[in-house]
Amino acid sequence: MAEYDKENIPEATVKKVNVILNLPEMNIEAVKSASGALAGVYKWAAVMMKYHELLKIVNPRRIKVAEMKAELKIVREQLAIKMKQLADVEETLATLQAELDRNEEEGRRLDNKIGDCKLKLSRAGKIITGLEGEKTRWTETVAALAAEFELLVGNSLVAAGMVAYGGAFTMRFRHSMETTWVDTIKKLGIKVQEGCSML
Length: 199
Known about the structure:
mainly alpha
């Protein structure tokens, strides 16, 4: 009895045993009076039938649990992939933030440089006034500086773009990038030197 496969009792056997167990004359007292040894078999058979009925409830739940475990495994695998993607995005974001910080610092440096240029232009005007004999030469110099000053932002954008992004590409592709940037800068209304190039 110990080795009996109680998990897989054939339905035909269950029907036959239940017919016998449900007979009016089949009860534990009647079986005991017929044979003490047979009473143990009667109890065992009754327990097996109850166990079989319980399996009808438990087995679908076991199957459901197995399905849910399989689904959980898939969800956990997908979660691991998403977590890896999130870590990659956060790493990229940190890199971009560091680059933004560097660019903002460079922007502040350029702003300071522009301020210095304005101050120098102002001082140059005062010197021109004081040096009438040098007025023509100084006027031409100031005009040239003013023209360069107007081009400073646009030229700096092209230079910064090439320094930041152009190093790893071919000459032809870098030239294409510069041309695209110059056209875009002009569309934005920022002045840039004609033919502006890192060359």
